[in-house]
Amino acid sequence: MNYTYDVAVLVGSLRRDSLNRKLAHVLAGLAPPALSLDIVEIRQLPLYNQDEDGTPPAAVSEFRTRIAAADAVLFVTPEYNRSVPAALKNALDVGSRPSGRSVWNGKPAGVVTAVTGQLGGFGANHHLRQSLMYLNVPTMQQPEAYIGGVDKLFDDQGRLVVDSTRAHLERYMDAFAQWVARFPRD
């Protein structure tokens, strides 16, 4: 029996015309049939506040429910100051609390970082992986996806126009599908 894995996609950039959001849409289009990618918004999440653990805001409850239901998570993010954007770190915190009730635990993940510069978001990629390791999120190691010069990859309609990048991202998504399939569903 074929199964389609539900992949929650978290985009680290909140910008209206985010290059990482464009990239997330490209990745969804390149995903093999075994994966169904759905962008889960993080902009509505209030800053994590332990005082609200007993009665979390609706946005927090909805986010936690959506992530808990997903079979896997794909993070697509820029790098801010050699780390992840605050909104993405907050989403990790919101999903991991209260203590002992993390929605991330054991959920397979992938990390794609994309920046306008040359290094492809190496710092953000590895800072995110450090947090994911602590949260017990098994994260695909290879192939890696550090996308530099992301501002030169799309046409005016947001379509990927660089064939070598497309080929790399297709390989990445195929490997990610194999990675996700290694983990039992609940």
What is the strand and helix layout of this fold?
Elements (H helix, E strand, L loop, with lengths): L4 E7 L7 H12 L4 E5 L18 H12 L2 E6 L8 H11 L12 E6 L7 H13 L11 E2 L15 H19 L5
Parallel strand pairs: 1-2, 1-3, 3-4, 4-5
Task: Outline the structure in words.
By secondary structure, the chain is an alpha/beta fold. The chain has a single domain, classed as 3-Layer(aba) Sandwich (Rossmann fold). 36% of the residues lie in helices and 14% in strands. It has 5 helices and 5 strands; from the N terminus they run E-H-E-H-E-H-E-H-E-H. The chain has helices at residues 19-30, 58-69, 86-96, 122-134, 163-181, and strands at residues 5-11, 35-39, 72-77, 109-114, 146-147. It has a 5-stranded parallel beta sheet with strand order 2-1-3-4-5, with helices on both faces. Helix 3 links the parallel strand 3 and strand 4 (109-114). The longest helix has 19 residues, at 163-181. The protein is globular, with a radius of gyration of 16 Å. The relative contact order is 0.19.
Short characterization:
By secondary structure, this protein is α/β, with parallel strands linked by helices. Helices cover 36% and strands 14% of the residues. It has one domain (5-181): Rossmann fold (3-Layer(aba) Sandwich).
Key traits:
single chain; 186 residues; alpha/beta; Rossmann fold; 5-stranded parallel sheet; 5 helices; 14% strand; globular
Q: Would you identify the CATH architecture? A: 3-Layer(aba) Sandwich
Class in CATH?
Alpha Beta
So what's the overall shape? Answer: globular
CATH topology value:
Rossmann fold
CATH H-level superfamily: Flavodoxin domain
The total tally of domains equals 1
Low-confidence stretches: none
**What is the overall pLDDT average?**
96
Distance between the termini: 16 Å
Helix content: 25-40%
Q: How do the strands line up in the largest sheet?
A: 2-1-3-4-5
Rg from C-alpha positions?
16 Å
Number of helices: 5
